[in-house]
Amino acid sequence: MGVKVGACSMSMELMGIKKEEFIDGVEIGGVASYLGSTEGSGLNLFI
């Protein structure tokens, strides 16, 4: 289906969340990497 799950590195830092706390496959990045990876997407959610 091509679904990707991403987490914001800045939000993780502010909330004290570590990469190891996520399930496998979650991509960590900032706003710039998020926008770059979703540029050609038909639908994306930024929550």
From TrEMBL:
Pfam families: DrsE_2. SUPFAM superfamilies: DsrEFH-like. Coiled coil: none annotated. It comes from the Bacteria. InterPro entries: DsrE2-like, DsrEFH-like. This is Peroxiredoxin family protein. It comes from Clostridium beijerinckii.
